[in-house]
Design a protein that fits this description.
The complex is a heterodimer of chains A (about 120) and B (about 675). With about 120 residues, chain A is α/β, with parallel strands linked by helices. Chain A is built from five helices and five strands; from the N terminus they run βαβαβαβαβα. Chain A has a single domain, classed as Response regulator (Rossmann fold, 3-Layer(aba) Sandwich), CATH 3.40.50. Chain A has a five-stranded parallel sheet with strand order 2-1-3-4-5, with helices on both faces. In chain A, α4 links the parallel β4 and β5. The radius of gyration of chain A is 13 Å and the shape is globular. In chain A, about 45% of the residues lie in helices and about 20% in strands. By secondary structure, chain B is an alpha+beta fold. Chain B folds into six domains: about 130 residues, Up-down Bundle (Four Helix Bundle (Hemerythrin (Met), subunit A)), CATH 1.20.120; about 120 residues, Alpha-Beta Plaits; about 30 residues; about 55 residues, Histidine kinase  CheA-like, homodimeric domain (Helix Hairpins), CATH 1.10.287; about 180 residues, Histidine kinase-like ATPase, C-terminal domain (Heat Shock Protein 90), CATH 3.30.565; about 130 residues, CheA-289, Domain 4 (OB fold (Dihydrolipoamide Acetyltransferase, E2P)). Chain B has 21 helices and 22 strands. In chain B, the strands form five sheets. Chain B has a six-stranded mixed sheet with strand order 14-18-19-17-16-15. Chain B has a five-stranded mixed sheet with strand order 6-8-9-11-10. Chain B has a five-stranded mixed sheet with strand order 20-12-13-22-21. The longest helix of chain B has 27 residues. Chain B is elongated and about 110 Å long. The chains are: A alpha/beta (about 120), B alpha+beta (about 675). Chains A and B meet through α4, β5 and α5 of A and α2 and α7 of B.
């Protein structure tokens, strides 16, 4: 069975790009969220196997959303999506339980690698 | 879109700072390539810039800083030599960056062609790569012999609790972008299955991403070697790893020699600490000082200044009233108000003060570029960069100073050959000195070049139809400030477009200052700029002209004399007064302003502008007073005769005479 993924990013463009990469490679994108608040809700509804979480977002940023989701489900598998220069945020996310991170602009191989390892 | 607009101002402010730091550090680096701390700072600044640009979504800027960072990293790990060429390339990157930033500030987002620069940067990075691959075999685990006693103890303790010690080295993938976060993730994962007891490089460096792909770990865990390895391999972006079990019995005793190495490491730290303390004391390395400070919006400061000025006005008014009504009881509290307002005034003036180095610090870089461009050996000596001036003055100073220094480098300093023939040192010296003198700040730009030849000036003046009759040599030289005057026959890239010195003079005069030049052939020229400390509150002499009261800035007044009519004589159709055997032109202010003089025009105020004396004829003197200058606005602002207006103690509004402009026409 293909893995169910929730994509969180405030930019439609980024979500489309990720969806494209994932769906072409046998993942099932079950939902998209455009901010942290939505991400927490959708996570509750869909219980995805994996979440890709952007860091900079309105309403609730990715790190806060990660913490919220982790507090509800400590086994939640979350990969952070970061831009260059967000090192400290990434580290905070790792501290709070993010399993990996991928750096924008996305490299398809890198994204898949990361997903594969996290799902193992 | 990220809502980054509100950070824009901050972004630009900080970017300016980082660019300046980079410029300074790289300049210093060229001279002291061995200094590690410098590279660290450069690297940090570049990195921060990149991060900021990326966050703001400025792509080109991010790309450029990123490539620069790569080169800095190569500097750091020693694979790339610091040479004049590489430094020049870095500088051109910085210039491009500055250009991009300027455009972004103006909300212009255009396409930049940075491919050239990127290519050169890449060429640098890849050129070294060959070398790097050779040294790359340095990918290895920590030598057991270098483990200090504490670590050995920890390892032994672990053994007793059936924790095995592992010596691990991880090499990250070349493409890995956030090395700091990546290493952190790996280490974080290891911490879940054991204890990380030693990191090389140390944790802070790792977190900053301040290392070259390889990091080493001493790790205690109950898991087997294979399990540990697998755990690490679970991470992405790893190129290679080495994991070995540590057997301390194989290690040599902890020998003194290794202690030395440890010492060295510590030394490295203490050096860093030292530079930290240096930074906090704003002494010599004050350039990079981070004083405890807050940022204040300039307009707020201006407003504060304005309010204090008004306070001063009303204080003066209260004093006036209290004398008028002989309200003795009010004297004492009023005295206190007086003291406090003066302190307040001093304070706000001080807050507005900025060291001139803010403008001066761009010059070492400029001189470097100029010496390459002009193929001359140039040395710039800056003194007194801590001298403070009102910030409005400081920010206006850059342009005239740039001009003077370019002139000095281009026209002043001779070519190497010419200097050799004259028996001068090949290296041309330009001195830039600043110091405070009373309530003025003096800035001197001095070169030891060929000087200004009055004869050439005379010829050139004649050609341009400027009257030179009866001018002393000194006056002749000062003709260079005459509008439309330029002695250069050929226009170089650097200076000499004929609109030079008069613009400089105009600027300085508009700042309430004066500029003057002295020069000796083959010995060099000295430009002296005198500036008021502040533009907002000045000591003034109040005078009567006709029925009107005017204020004159006290700073320029040399002497006041009472004259009899006979002492003012006519010469060449002009009224003059003889002062210290010098002919001083007399200016009847009432005529200039079109006011009827009621009384005897019997007070002469002698003023100096540059090295020239003028005598201003007024009707009566009232006294000396501190006044706050309010700029005239609207149509009034166009009136050249006045600097501004002020409100007096009695509530009257008085105009402040712009002596420079009044005398200017007379002088010509």
């Amino acid at each position: 069975m293909s893995k169910r993924v929730l994509i969180v990013d405030d930019a439609v463009f980024m979500r489309m790009k990720l969806r494209d990469i994932l769906e072409k490679n046998g993942y099932q994108v079950v939902a998209e969220a455009q901010n942290g608040v939505e991400a927490v809700e959708k996570f509750k509804q869909e219980k995805p196997d994996l979440v890709t979480m952007d860091i900079t977002m309105p309403e609730m940023d990715g790190v806060a959303a990660l913490k919220e989701i982790k507090s509800q489900d400590k086994d939640a598998k979350i990969i952070m999506c970061s831009a260059m220069g967000q090192q400290s945020m990434v580290m905070e996310a790792i501290q709070s339980g993010a399993l990996d991170f991928i750096v924008k602009p996305f490299d398809t191989d890198r994204v898949l690698q990361s997903l594969e390892r996290v799902m193992r | 879109m990220d809502d980054t607009t509100k950070y824009r101002d901050l972004f630009f402010e900080e970017t300016d700072e980082y660019l300046q730091t980079l410029n300074e550090c790289i300049l210093e680096l060229e001279e002291h390539p061995e200094e590690k701390g410098l590279l660290d700072e450069i690297f940090r600044s570049a990195h921060t810039l990149k991060g900021m640009a990326a966050t703001m979504g400025y792509k080109t800027m991010t790309e450029l800083t990123h490539s620069m960072e790569n080169v800095f990293e190569l500097f750091k790990n020693g694979t790339l030599k610091i040479t004049a060429e590489t430094i020049t390339l870095i500088f051109s990157c910085l210039d491009k960056l500055a250009e991009i930033v300027e455009d972004l500030r103006g909300d212009i987002e255009k396409e930049y062609d940075i491919s050239e620069i990127l290519k050169s940067l890449e060429a640098l990075s890849s050129g070294e790569k060959d070398v790097k691959n050779e040294t790359d075999d340095g990918f290895s685990i920590i030598s057991l012999n270098s483990l200090d006693n504490t670590l050995r103890m920890l390892i032994n303790n672990g053994k007793e609790r059936s924790y095995d010690a592992y010596n691990i080295a991880v090499k990250l993938d070349e493409k890995c972008t956030l090395k700091g976060a990546r290493s952190y993730l790996i280490i974080n994962r290891l911490e879940q299955i054991g204890d990380v007891i030693h990191l090389d490089p140390p944790a802070e460096k790792l977190e900053e991403g301040n290392f070259d792909r390889v990091f080493r770990i001493i790790f205690l865990s109950q898991l087997s070697l294979d399990e540990v390895k697998e755990n690490i391999n679970d991470n992405v972006e790893i190129e290679d790893i080495i994991v070995e079990e540590i057997d301390l019995s194989k290690a040599q005793e902890f020998t003194p020699k290794i202690e030395e190495i440890a010492e060295e490491v510590k030394d490295g730290e203490s050096v860093k600490e030292e530079s930290d303390t240096k930074e906090s004391s704003s002494s010599k390395s004050g350039n990079h000082a981070m004083n405890q400070s807050i940022r204040v919006d300039l307009s707020r400061l201006d407003r504060f200044m304005n309010l204090v000025s008004e306070l001063v006005i009303y204080r003066t008014r209260l004093e006036d009233l209290s004398t008028k009504y002989k309200a003795t009881e009010i004297y004492e509290p009023l005295e206190n108000v007086e003291r406090i307002t003066s302190e307040l005034q001093d304070l706000v003036l001080k807050i507005r003060m900025q060291p001139v180095k803010v403008v001066l610090n761009r010059f070492p870089r400029m001189i470097r570029d100029l010496s390459q461009e002009l193929d001359k050996d140039l040395e710039l000596l800056i003194e007194g960069e801590e001298t403070e001036l009102d910030r409005t003055v400081v920010s206006e100073l850059a342009e005239p100073l740039v001009h003077l220094i370019r002139n000095a480098a281009d026209h002043g300093i001779e070519s190497r050959e010419a200097r050799r023939e004259l028996g001068k040192a090949e290296k041309g010296l330009i001195n830039l000195t600043a110091y405070q003198e009373g309530n003025r700040v003096i800035l001197i730009v001095k070169d030891d070049g060929r000087g200004i030849n009055p004869e050439i000036i005379e010829k050139s003046a004649a050609r341009k139809g400027i009257e030179t009759k009866g001018l002393s040599e000194r006056d002749m030289i000062n003709l260079i400030f005459h509008p439309g005057f330029s002695t250069v026959e050929h226009v170089t890239n650097v200076s000499g477009r004929g609109v030079g010195m008069d613009v400089v003079k105009q600027k300085i005069t508009s700042l309430g200052g004066t500029i003057d030049v002295e020069s000796k052939i083959d010995e060099g020229s000295t430009f002296t700029i005198k500036l008021p400390l502040t533009l907002s509150i000045i000591q003034a002499l109040m005078v009567n002209i006709g029925e009107e009261t005017f204020a004159l800035p006290l700073g320029i007044i040399e002497k006041i004399v009472k004259v009899e009519k006979e002492e003012i004589v006519l010469s060449h159709d002009k009224e003059i007064y003889v002062y210290r055997e010098k002919m001083v032109p007399v200016i009847r202010i009432n005529e200039k302003l079109g006011i009827e003089s009621t009384r005897e025009n019997n007070h002469l105020i002698l003023i100096t502008l540059g090295h020239k004396y003028y005598a201003l004829l007024v009707d009566d003197l009232i006294g000396q007073q501190e006044i706050a200058i309010k700029k005239l606005s609207g149509t009034l602002g166009n009136m050249k005769e006045y600097l501004g207006a002020t409100i007096l103690g009695n509530g009257d509004i008085t105009l402040i005479l712009d002596v420079g402009n009044l005398c200017k026409e007379e002088g010509e």
